[in-house]
Amino acid sequence: MKSKKWEFLGSQGQFKLEQPEKSSYLYFPLVNEAGMMSAITPNLHGEMTSGHNSFLMEPVSVLDLHNSKASRNFWVYLEGSGAWSVSGNSAKQNAALFSGSEEKSELEGGFLWHKVTREHATAGLRAETVNFVPVTDDKIELMKVKLTNTGTSPLRLTPTAAIPIYGRSADDLRDHRHVTSLLHRTFTSQHGVEVQPALSFDERGHRVNKMTYGVFGAGASGEVPVGFFPETEGFTGEGGALDWPEAVVANLEPAVKAGAELEGFEATGALRFEEVTLAPGQAVSYVIAMIIADDRIDQERIAADYLSEARFDELLGQNEAYWQAKLDTVTFHTGDKEQDMWMKWVTLQPILRRLYGNSFLPYHDYGRGGRGWRDLWQDCLALMVMEPAEVRNLLLNNYAGVRMDGSNATIIGSKPGEFVADRNNIPRVWMDHGAWPLLTTLLYIHQSGDLELLLQPQTYFRDVFVKRCKERDLTWTPEQGNKLLTGDGKVYEGTILEHILLQNVTPFFHVGEHGNILLEGADWNDGLDLAPNRGESVAFTAFYASNLLELSELLLEMNEKTGQDSVEIAEEMAVLFDTLCNPVAYDSIADKRALLQRYYDSIVPSVSGAKVKLDIRQVAEDLKRKGEWAMEHLRRNEWIKNKEGHEWFNGYYNDHAERVEGDQPSGVRMTLTGQVFTIMGGVATEEQIGKISSAVNRYLKDDKIGYRLNSRFGGIQQDLGRAFGFAFGHKENGAMFSHMTVMYANALYKRGFVKEGFDVLDSIYKLSADFEQSRMYPGIPEYINEKGRGMYTYLTGSASWLLLTQLTEVFGVKGYYGDLQLEPKLMKPQFDVDGKASVETLFAGRMLRLVYCNPQGADYGAYRIQSVTLNGESLPFVVSGEGCLIQRSAIEKLSEDGLHELEIVLGQ
After folding, report:
1. I need a labelling partner for 787 at 20 to 30 A (CA). Which of 141, 310, 555, 803 fits?
2. Quick one: CA dihedral 703, 705, 709, 711, positive or negative?
3. Is residue 856 part of a domain?
């Protein structure tokens, strides 16, 4: 079935899509900072929630979007024609969908509002339905329905809003679904229906509930409903359904008026409005508010604040301005205007991840809410560009999740400093977790020049699990709290630098039989979770090796810039810097493990609290030796060549301590992850990168779905991970997993393989924007499956990496210890017809528009920065590598208001 692609309208990212209901699984996010999280589909299906235990509408998966009959419906009973749904969500309209007589419909989406326009097939009636979540302090979604007579005869109609009120936890969807409806206390008031369950039903203890869910409505000028159908079974009628309810189809008079109280039934916010006659060309509007509140709802306030057309339009304007201001902090202008608009939606996605976590949209990766440790740090990458004001506090708070053994809590609560061991209290360690904080913190330091952050004190996370969750400390009790204590019961604090050193040095000694860091519960790929004993991650050994060298350079920079001549650490940690006391033979796996065990034993059940100072240059040299040893080890032992003559890095060992990649009886095995971090971290030489690229194109590149995460391994790999139980070409087993594909592009750009990196990014854009295959709105999905469909839209860490790659590598706009570094890596097609490409972004608290001028039309590699002007005046710069450095002081002299223009002329 062919379907037209969405198309952008104007220059602000707004798009439209005709007949959107002909594409399955489409949904759109609506959200605010107050905690209202909604998802809405072209037929107004979806969900509304403020958390796992507070769903106004029934929790849904993508399958429910089409199979469930519940939705935000608004019905019109037309005299002479019968019942009609403005969203198309009726049994009669659904039956006509593929008959050739379907109604004309169109969707428009903007930041962050959703509009569906539908034409009645015969009656001459047009409905425009707009939904958004206002940027107020209420957990509320608003909907306005405008009905217009487009015919030549008067229309007599009776409107009914009908939103089913689920009103409880997602856990009650199957478990005690009916029993929890008996807790419902339903009230009708002048403007609508409100449900306050008597108890919060929980097998651990049934508590008195205060949470309330409401559906309220009014006409454009405040006209109140004339009655209600608050009980679902009374609304649908015997034999009826939510997509063909008797109350509407038979145009029944509402039996319930304002002031009623009902108990013990499933509820629906069904609001009947007064019958109205529309002359040709005449229109009438209705505003509906859907609310989640902490207690009974102040109906009069809600009516005054939300329930009029004038107020709706005012709030919609505020909403658009709010989101546009957030997204205007980064704007790209290239030779492809459609891709620039597409990037606007990518720019939104990291903010959505902060607000939704990984849950509460129909493709919920984790359905219970919260974010993981890795998500926390990677989302911060984009927030430093998008919302930099709070990043320092975020980073500082995040480090409180580090354990003294170098592992960390894996789930982050809703409050700063709130951590738990794991979502289901299952102790697991993802071996990659320690690597990400340094990457994020370095980006912050380069953007800000704030080396002082490294010296800030922070606590450590503590629970019953010790020695990287291999043992339980039975002397620990929950009453002690979740902070590490000293032997005399005081809360221990170490600097942020101490936390970073700990996370990156302990893995160096935590090695398997082949000298690489143990895989433990998994690495970045959560699906590699079945090799906890003998599995090794070569890929992330490369990442940690790179980190050790980065840390070495950071310490030397601190010494030079601030005069800092020592590093203060817990006395127990000194053993980890072995070259300063008792050197360990790094080729000896037994010696490395023994040293780490001695360290573990010294910090259980507590630390002494004493500190030691080490010479900062000696520590830097120790880290350098470790990093260089690890890199040489990988080059010497993990570079493989197969029968076809292709060469690349092995990425993993399984739980039988067998090398995973290369020629196997089932075929050639290769992972993209194993190539990304060896390239990005500098393990791969330039010659090797060329060979890796060739091998990736041979074994992983697929024109239909892009760069696969891995080749076909064959079998379910019980000694490596659950990912291989997935069908090949789906999720972590051979799909185009956007996160690692974007990181592959980033690594190529970073190492100067710009054409190859450009091809990777271009493939992601073209695959995502190919609506006929991807069936998704603008943005980047978590992955693209075997059929080319974009999956798990909106909530993906790949958006942060794509935004960061586009800004810092493609446009080459980044910080260097607080100064502004410019090193563009733009390809010739990325300049517009005037030979210009530009980006607007925040730096040093100022909005800058950086315009690259390429008057000679040179391609990357053939141009250099010739001159820089700031607001029309020549600006001195220092040549740095292939780019230049501009002192931060030159930027800080500028006004904090307005947009300042840097023009960078490129020449041969």
Report:
1. 803
2. negative
3. yes
DSSP 580: G
φ, ψ dihedrals at 595, nearest 5°? -60, -45
389 pLDDT exceeds 90?
no
Does residue 817 share a domain with residue 802? Answer: no
Q: Are both 158 and 176 inside the same structural domain? A: yes
The DSSP secondary structure of 684-718, one letter per residue, reads S-HHHHHHHHHHHHHHTEETTTEE-SB----S--T
Window from 302-316, 379-393, 593-607 with minimum mean pLDDT: 379-393
Output the average pLDDT for the chain.
94
Prediction pTM value: 0.95
371-372 sheet: strands from edge to edge: 371-372, 411-412, 419-420
CATH code of residue 880: 2.60.420.10
> Which CATH number does the domain housing residue 680 bear?
1.50.10.10
Place of tokens 């040095």: 505
Q: Please name the helix (run of DSSP H) or strand (run of DSSP E) that holds residue 534, with its range, or none.
A: none
Pair 741, 789 in one domain? yes
Same domain (yes/no): 600, 742: no
Residue closest to 728 by CA, chosen among 738, 718, 736, 720:
736
CATH number at residue 195: 2.70.98.40
* Residues pairing with 119 in the sheet: 126
Question: Can you tell me the distance from the alpha carbon of 187 to that of 262, in angstroms, rounded to the nearest whole number?
Answer: 6
Instruction: Say if residue 850 is in the same domain as residue 740.
Output: no
User: Looking at beta carbons, which pairs linking 830-839 to residues 24 or more positions away fall under 8 Å?
Assistant: 830/334, 830/335, 830/336, 831/334, 831/335, 831/857, 832/333, 832/334, 832/335, 833/335, 836/333, 837/333, 837/334, 837/335, 837/811, 838/332, 838/333, 839/330, 839/331, 839/332, 839/333, 839/807, 839/811, 839/813
In a domain, 206, yes or no: yes
Task: Over range 759-777, report the average pLDDT.
Answer: 97
Q: Which stretches of 96-191 are assigned E, i.e. beta strand? A: 105-110, 113-119, 125-132, 139-149, 155-165, 185-188
Closest-CA residue to 679 (of 761, 612, 601, 752): 752
Give the end of a domain, one of 781, 809, 837.
809
pLDDT tens by residue, 17-36 = 999 999 999 999 999 999 99
Q: Which of 417, 405, 124 is nearest to 278 (CA)?
A: 124
pLDDT of residue 560: 96
Q: Which of 55-69, 196-210, 712-726 has the lowest average pLDDT? A: 196-210
Per DSSP, 412 falls in state E
Domain match, 578 and 455 both: yes
Q: Is residue 115 part of a domain?
A: yes
Q: Are residues 132 and 101 in the same domain?
A: yes
Q: What is the pLDDT of residues 273-304, one digit of tens each?
A: 999 999 999 999 999 999 999 999 999 999 99
For 490-540, write each residue's pLDDT tens digit. 999 999 999 999 999 999 999 999 999 999 999 999 999 999 999 999 999
Inter-residue contact 454 to 568 (CB < 8 Å): no
> What is the separation, in whole angstroms, between the first and last Cα of the chain?
50
Kind and range of the H or E run holding 183: none
- What backbone torsions phi and psi does residue 565 show, to the nearest 5 degrees? -115, 0
Q: Which region holds residue 831: left if phi is over 0, alpha if psi is between -120 and 50, else beta?
A: beta
Domain-located, residue 341: no
Q: Provide the residue range defining the domain that includes 256.
A: 7-327
Q: Which long-range contacts (CB under 8 A, 24 or more apart) does 471-477 make?
A: 471/604, 473/604, 473/605, 475/605, 476/605
Say how many domains are in the chain: 4
Q: Specify whether the CB–CB gap between 669 and 583 falls below 8 A.
A: no
pLDDT band at 684 (very low <50, low <70, confident <90, very high): very high
Same domain? For 648 and 589 the reply is no
Task: Identify the band that residue 387 occupies on the pLDDT scale cut at 50, 70 and 90.
Answer: confident
Handedness of CA 429, 431, 436, 439 (dihedral sign): positive
| Pairing assessment for the beta strands 105-110 and 82-85 based on DSSP bridges | unpaired
Quick one: residue 461, left, alpha or beta (phi over 0 = left, psi -120 to 50 = alpha)?
beta
